[in-house]
C-alpha cells in the first residue's frame, strides 16, 4: 500500500516543518497581489484557495480528487441536527477542540510523573471500575455516566438495534458508551466471549461518531472561510480543526478475520440502503476465506474445539495486513491511501513492515483514538510489534504532507523538544484496550504508556476459582524471588535442582509426564536442558512444529516411547490439540489462558479407566504470576498463595 513519499531525511524540528509548509501553501494559495506574510506561521496571513466553496484543495482532511459535496460528513443534510449539535459536540470540543484546557504544562507534568487520583467506582452494571484522573480537570465518573454524547443521526438507529438485544447487552453498551463519550482511556481486561461483539459494535459506533463530529467541524469552517473570501474580509482565525495528517483512528487487530468483523460492525452504523462500500469485492477476496477454502473450525463436530478457539481462529487468520478506510457522506471507501483515509485497520506486524519499508510513520502523527482488540492474541504473536507501533504514534511528522498549518490545532503544534520530537496530541489520544483477561504487558501499557490527561478507567473482575476433581494430587509450588529480572533464572534453577529430580525419583511420575511452559524463552531454555540430558527421553510440541512432527510426538508420548512431553503455551493456543497418555502434569508457570489449566487436567480422562487419584499436578509460581494465578485459584484464593511471597 502506498504510504506517500519516501522520507529519508532526519527528523526535522517544528520550525522547519512550518517553513516548508508555508512556502508550499504560499505558492498554492496566495493571490498575486497579496502581501507577503509577516511570519511564516502567522495564521491571519494564510489565504484560501479559489475553489474553496467546492473543494478545500490540498487540505489534509480532503482528497484532492473528491469535491467537498461528495466528501461531506456521514449522514448528509445536517439541518435537523442543528438543535442538538451543541449538546452532542460539547464533550468533543472540550477534549479535542483547539482551545481545550486539558493540555497544559501542569497537566502534562502531572501525567509524566504519574500523579493520578484513584478511586473505585461503579458505572451501571460494569464490574468494579478503577478510575485514574487529574482531579482538577476530570470530574468523577458518576458525573459522566449519564452523558452519552452520540449524534442524534447515529443514536436513533443504534437504539433501534439495541431494542432487539437482551437487557444485559444493552446495559453493557450504554455503560461503556458513557465512558467512551467522556473520552477517557478504557482498559477492559474482563471481556467475555458473550459480550465481545456488542462491545465491538459500541466502540465502532464511538469511532464513527468521532469522525462525524470532526468532519462536521471541518465543513463548517470551510463554509466560514468561503463566505469570508466571497465578502473580501479577513478570514476567521479560529478555524484550527485538523491534525498533521488525516487518519485519526487506528485499530490494531491480530488477524484479517478480525478486520472483517470490525468492518461489519462499522458499516452496521452507516446509513442504508443507499450507502455504498467501495472495493468491497476486493476486500472480501483478501480478508475472507477463498471461495474454494473450507474452514475446518466451522465444519468441525460440536465439542471438537473449545468455543474461544473457534471464535479466535475462524476465517482468514493471516496476521500481516493493513488497510485504510475513508468515510464520506455516501460511501465507505476501502483500500484508501493512508494519508487520505480516516481509519486504519492493521495488524502490528503489517504496520511495522510498512513503517520500516517507507522509513516514515507520519500517518500516525495525528491519531486521536487508538483501539487495540484481542490483546491476548497479539501477545501470543509478538508483543514487541505492538510496542514498536505505539512508539511511532503521535510524533511530529518528518514532512509537511501539504498540511495547511493555519488549520492545525495548536496542541498538535506544541511539540516537546526533548530528544524524540513528540506532539502534545499524545496527551489527548483516547486509547481503548480490550482483552478477555489481564497480563503484565497490558497493565504496564495502561500504567506507563497511556497519557490521556482526561483520565483513564480500568475494569476489574472478580475471578472465581477453576473447579477440578478434588482427588487429583494437586500442589502449587512457590519460587521465592525478590527481583523480577532474576525470576526466570530462579525458576529454572528450582526446576532443574529441586522439582525435576524429585519427579525422576518416582517411577510413576517419571513417565507419562507433560511439562507445560508458558514463556517461549523459558521453553527454549528447558528444551536445551533436556537435550543435554542423555538419560531423559522426551518429545516436543512447539508453535514451530510441523504437522508431521506433531503426529510423531503425540504418538511416541501416548505409546510410552517418550517419558516426557514439552508443550509450549503458544502451541496449544494455535493448535488446541487434545493430548492422550497424560498422567502427570508440571506447569512450569501458570498458563496465561486460564482455560488451558482445566483443559490439560481433563486430558488424562480421555483414556479409559483413569481415576482422579491417578493424576498428579504441580504448578510452579512466583509473586510475579499474580494475574495468572488469580484466574486459576480465584481472586480470593490468590491472596493466600502469595501471602508468604509478598
Describe this protein with a few key phrases.
646 residues; alpha/beta; Rossmann fold; 2 domains; eleven-stranded mixed beta sheet; six-stranded parallel beta sheet; 40% helix
Overview of the structural elements:
The structure is a single chain. The chain is an alpha/beta fold and 646 residues long. The protein folds into two domains: 446 residues, P-loop containing nucleotide triphosphate hydrolases (Rossmann fold, 3-Layer(aba) Sandwich); 170 residues, P-loop containing nucleotide triphosphate hydrolases (Rossmann fold, 3-Layer(aba) Sandwich). It is built from 22 helices and 19 strands. Helix 7 packs across helix 8, helix 8 packs antiparallel against helix 9 and helix 12 crosses helix 14. The N terminus is likely disordered.
Tell me roughly what share of residues is in helical segments: 25-40%
The number of strands is 19
Computed Rg: 28 Å
Portion of residues in beta strands equals 5-15%
Mean pLDDT: 84
Q: Could you say what the CATH topology of the largest domain is called?
A: Rossmann fold
What would you call the structural class? alpha/beta
Give the SSE map.
Blueprint lengths: L13 H16 L52 H15 L8 H8 L4 E5 L7 E5 L7 H4 L7 H11 L4 H15 L3 E4 L4 H38 L18 E4 L3 H13 L7 E3 L1 H8 L8 H4 L7 H7 L8 E6 L3 E4 L8 E4 L1 H11 L10 E4 L2 H7 L1 H9 L18 H4 L1 E4 L1 E4 L6 E5 L5 H10 L6 E4 L13 E6 L8 H19 L7 E5 L2 H13 L5 E4 L5 H12 L5 E5 H7 L8 E4 L6 H9 L13 E6 L4 H17 L4
Parallel strand pairs: 3-12, 3-13, 4-8, 4-9, 5-7, 9-12, 14-19, 15-17, 15-18, 16-17, 18-19
Antiparallel strand pairs: 1-2, 2-13, 6-7, 6-8, 10-11
Helix pairs in contact: 6-7, 7-8, 8-9, 12-14
